[in-house]
Amino acid sequence: MNILITGGTGFIGRALVTRLRRDAHDVAVVTRNADDARALLGTDVGIVESHPGVPVPLDELGRADAVVNLAGEPLLGGRWTADRMEILRSSRIDLTRAIVDAMAKLSDRPQVFVSASAVGYYGTTGDRVLTEDAPAGDDFLARLCVDWETEALRAEELGVRVALPRTGLVLGRGGGALQTMLPIFRAGLGGPVGSGDQYLPWIHLDDHVEMIVRTIADSRYTGAFNATGPEPVTFRSFASALGHVLDRPTILPVPSLVVRAVFGRAASTVLEGQRAMPMRATALGFRHRFATVEEALRDLLENPGIDIAPIEGQIPNSPYLSERSPSFLLETRSELARPLDEVFAFFSRAENLGLLTPPAMRFRITDAPRRVEKGSEIAYRLRVGPVPIRWRTRIDEWEKGVRFVDSQIEGPYRSWWHEHSFRAVGESTLMTDRVYYAPPLGPLGRMANSVFVAGQLREVFGYRAGVMRLRFGDEATDD
User: Fold this and answer.
1) Could you tell me if 379 and 364 are in contact, meaning their C-beta atoms sit under 8 angstroms apart?
2) Is pLDDT of 477 > 70?
3) Each residue of 255-264: pLDDT tens digit?
4) Is 216 exposed, middle or buried, given 0-12, 13-18 or 19+ CB atoms closer than 10 A?
5) What is the pLDDT of residues 337-366, one digit of tens each?
6) How many C-beta atoms surround the C-beta of residue 312 within 10 A?
7) Are 240 and 234 in contact (CB under 8 A)?
8) Contact, 99 vs 6, CB < 8 A?
9) What is the CA radius of gyration of the chain?
10) Contact 222, 161 (CB under 8 A)
């Protein structure tokens, strides 16, 4: 299918684009910044620039079999002043209206329009179980969702199937509310917010994306449905589960008064929950891969397949490593449910490195060859926290379809030698990464590795593993 996406560079959008490419859909993303979109999404996604007054080009809309509308300013991007609330409304409602108005001008229209909504539709409901038939609330967020959905549903009059996923708290790597909470909880300062009794209608990012993929393909998905996990939990239970996974205490509550002082009217999105259940998706046979919040958090935070240890024994026979002796070995393996040729082709393109890197690191390639081969050099810049870093690597070894090695010739490490190897296992591919590295500053670098560097690398390679699972699938997704 030809699928056009707005909001494709956001937290959910990036994951959806990656997942859709696994099924070989032709995906195009509408964006105001083509360079940033290309850096985030890689080489095999179409980039469509929007312009003032033309948020979605008519010719691109006419080519689409499906349109997915995920655009919208973050709800917690600032206090809800009158101006901010108008931005929140216009970024959702005006764009949705413009898309449907543009569809009306076409003779050949998309088959399906998936337009995001939110469980905020239901307003404040306490512990009442909410199915999709529950009435709308009457607060600001509920009215926003009602008007948002109303604009999208106008496409039904044009013969277009409309689906409205009402999203809850999406848990994933590289963005979303979880990434905001993690520093506090890792420091042992986390706990329930407000009363702690408000319900969180959470969902794992992979399940949320899979539900949208199913919605595009399955004509039974029409109207609104709750895009949430099967077991909503209270904030107190969520905080306890997060602390359990991180092995940290969760005894410091955040009073409602503090939250309201920080967020103003926007505090309602944190202090007032919805016990929303995905009844329609469940009735249509959708199965969540992550059924409990602890399963979801363990998948996102534990990274069990990433091993980092001091080097013991021999190292590879390499001129680079003989000159720059490494101290540690990072090793990880992934079995990907795609043929070797497809997997190798993806990883041998320098332009896909940005897709595999957490967005907070602001990865950008500054110089790359047209064709990657032995001796090629690739330069890029990124950030580790607030610190900007320039990095240049060289391809030291290249065996097409088997392995390649890149080594750092300019950058933060004293030694960095990264071997990527590939082996066919039936119709799947076993990919192994081995990174021989040494932090700078000698003994101080070893201390920094235990305090910071190893944890940072686990997060980076954990994010990378999550992207790989979305893009290529694994044993569980292939069942």
Assistant:
1) no
2) no
3) 888 778 777 7
4) buried
5) 999 999 999 998 999 999 999 999 999 999
6) 6
7) no
8) yes
9) 23
10) yes
3-state secondary structure of 121: helix
Query: What is the C-alpha end-to-end distance of the chain, expressed in Å?
Result: 22
Q: Which two tokens stand for residue 201?
A: 């209608």
Could you tell me the fold of the domain covering 306-472?
Alpha-D-Glucose-1,6-Bisphosphate; Chain A, domain 4 (3.30.530)
Query: Which residue has 């699938």 as its token pair?
Result: 473
Maximum separation of any 2 CA atoms in the chain, in Å = 70
Instruction: Supply the DSSP symbol for 72.
Output: -
In this structure, what token pair is assigned to residue 353? Answer: 């490195």
Rounded to whole angstroms, the Cα distance separating 103 from 93 reads 15
Tokens of 129: 């179980």
Residue located via tokens 């998309």: 110
Q: Tell me the mean pLDDT in the region 115-126.
A: 93
Kindly state the tokens that stand for 352.
Answer: 């896909």
Q: Which residue has the tokens 């992934």?
A: 334
**What fold, for 2-301?**
Rossmann fold (3.40.50)
Contact 21/2 with Cβ under 8 angstroms?
no
Q: Are 226 and 282 in contact (CB under 8 A)?
A: no
- Every domain of the chain and the residues it spans: 2-301, 306-472
Q: Where are the alpha helices (DSSP H) in 115-164?
A: 140-153
Residues in the chain, total: 479
- Helix axis angle, 11-22 to 34-41, nearest 10°: 60
E strand map for 52-125: 66-69, 112-115, 117-118
Distance CA 104, CA 157 (A): 9
pTM of the model: 0.94
